[in-house]
Amino acid sequence: MIFRCKNCGGNIVYDPARKAMCCPHCDSVDSEEAVGSPIMNTCINCGAPMMFKDHTSATKCPNCETYTILEERVSGQYKPDMIIPFKISKDVAQGMLIDEFGKRAFTPTGFLSYSSISKMQGHYVPFFMYDYHSDINYHAIGTKVRTWSDSRYNYTETSYYDVAREMDGDFDKVPVDASIDMDDGTMDLMEPYTYRELEEHQDKYLSGFYAEKYNMEEGELAYRAEKKVRRDSDELLNNTLGGYATLTNVNKNIAVHKRDVKFALLPIWEYVFNYQGVDYKFHVNGQTGKVVGKTPISKSRVLAYGATVFGMIYIAGMLLRMALMAL
Amino acid sequence: MARYFKYFKIPFIIFAIVVIGCIAIRISAGNKAPVVRGNKVTDLTQNVFDYAGNLTEEHIAELESYITEIEDQTKIDIAIVTLNESLEGKGYYGGSNHMWVNGYADTFADVHQMGYEMPMGSNVVFVDNCYREPSTGRVDSWMSTYGTAKTRISEGDCESLMDDALYGLNDGSTEYDYYRAYRRVVELIPRYASATGGILGFLRPIYIFAFSLVVAAIYVAASWRSKAGDKTTSGSTYLESGRPNMRRRTDVFLRKTVTKVKIQSSSGSGGGGGHGGGGHSR
């Protein structure tokens, strides 16, 4: 399926800045019509053959650059329950990358050049969102310590307490990415998303971007959600235990159970920079603008800049010494 | 290259200011009124008092001449004193040879009313007592400083100066070795004795080199960020109501214990006196 402009026949894409379907050719807004194709692996617009990866649900024709959505991969069991449409446009995302990494001294030449950064792509990443209930039971012996002195002695008073906590909570939409290609740690760092902007899925949001259907099952990913819920529960418990010098646990039990799970697509801008044969990936949260990525280091810059700092301080120090010796 | 100057624009400006400042200091130093010999009391013609007989007449004469030259350069009255005797029970403060030599040097400066610009002015007295203390088996030396010399040459400077100059002196030292060592003492005084006092002690080339290396290393470490990003969720991010439902929260006091530890008294230490300086043992 593609979205075609009723006015000029061009490919209509979703514009995050205007929050509308826009035609980049005639600038029409909301003039789209969905056009399907019975022929698989062929571009609906130009007829050129298209190669789809196993999990791709939206991509771009390499010949005419028309964004194509594979209906069978966004419907039925693969139909997302929810989606957060891109809120940050490509230009803004590029600006955020430059703001974040532009001042780093040791990045190699061309890292944030226009020709490199313009290759940034928008991806809808498949996520499962888990709802969990957590039940926390805690019992410990805590101590509080007070010290004071007089003219002859240092005193230490240790008070012992019986500490008990019973609490529970419902965790909603704990996200876990269901994409083999995306790094789990990086996807965790993209959190949090603002869930009040979650919408019911509509295929039109995918036009203009790349997307995947989920390619890992929710059952095999539940352990990651459970791990997050346990970690968060532990943090909530610790927040109630301030003021104690020591805590000796008698009983600590965090029981979690899954209540529900939903499938959602979440927006991420991805920029890949190849340096010395290694791909360095940078991601910008397509909704919040949070930037995640590890920059490559140019060893020649480290040497040159480090030597400059060393040289300036050494020369300044020696000049100062010579000046002071003249006094 | 443009990127290089982008990162170093401010450091280069600071660097230029330092260079200009140093040039200004040198120029102003050249315009300053000179310090002249003004001590009419002390005998400025004798600077070497070789009571231990470590030097030949020829070496003493050469050393005297060299000291006069350095005195005019540094505006500090300098004396070299050699001894070979125990100073125990001779009225000097302290309980060790090290301290007695210190007392001897300070007293020597006072008795001779030493000073370049005036009596009891800027002076340095170097005492090398070749007497080997039986209890320690060591030979002690002391460099006493007074007046501007005290502020210009720190205790640490005195010690490192003697470490440098007396390195290698031992029982088998010849007259030439002593001459060379004492001449080195005199030679090093101008290097430490600037009008800026102890600052130059910190501005030794090796220190500048090490400091530059450390700052460059810190700069590289600070700029070398390897973290991909920060975790920005908390325990309550996905909690439905923003906070957990607290069913029970009790903190029941059980008992208390009190321990007391006697405070160890520490003895204070005194200080003072007009002379500065540092010691050396070999």
Protein model, in words:
- The complex is a heterodimer of chains A (327) and B (282).
- Chain A is an alpha+beta fold and 327 residues long.
- Among the domains of chain A are: 124-296, no CATH class; 297-327.
- Chain A is 22% helix and 38% strand.
- Chain A has helices at residues 90-101, 114-117, 184-190, 218-239, 299-325, and strands at residues 2-5, 13-15, 20-22, 32-35, 56-60, 67-69, 82-83, 121-149, 153-177, 199-200, 210-212, 246-275, 278-285, 291-293.
- In chain A, strands 5, 6, 7, 8, 9, 10, 11, 12, 13 and 14 form a 10-stranded mixed beta sheet that branches. A two-stranded antiparallel ribbon of chain A has the order 1-4. Chain A has a two-stranded antiparallel sheet with strand order 2-3.
- In chain A, a hairpin with a 5-residue loop joins strand 13 (278-285) and strand 14 (291-293).
- The longest helix of chain A is centred in the C-terminal third of the chain and has 27 residues, at 299-325.
- The termini of chain A are far apart.
- The relative contact order of chain A is 0.19.
- Chain B has 282 residues and is of the alpha/beta class.
- Chain B has a domain at 35-206: Roll (Diaminopimelate Epimerase, Chain A, domain 1).
- Chain B contains 8 helices and 6 strands, in the order αβαβαββαααααββ.
- Chain B has helices at 2-30, 57-74, 97-111, 148-152, 155-165, 175-192, 199-202, 205-223; strands spanning 48-50, 77-83, 123-133, 138-146, 245-262, 276-281.
- Chain B has a 5-stranded mixed beta sheet, sandwiched between helices.
- The longest helix of chain B is centred in the first third of the chain and has 29 residues, at 2-30.
- Chain B is extended.
- The model of chain B is unreliable at 267-273 (pLDDT under 50).
- At the A-B interface, strand 8, strand 9, helix 3, helix 4 and strand 14 of A face helix 1, helix 8 and strand 5 of B.
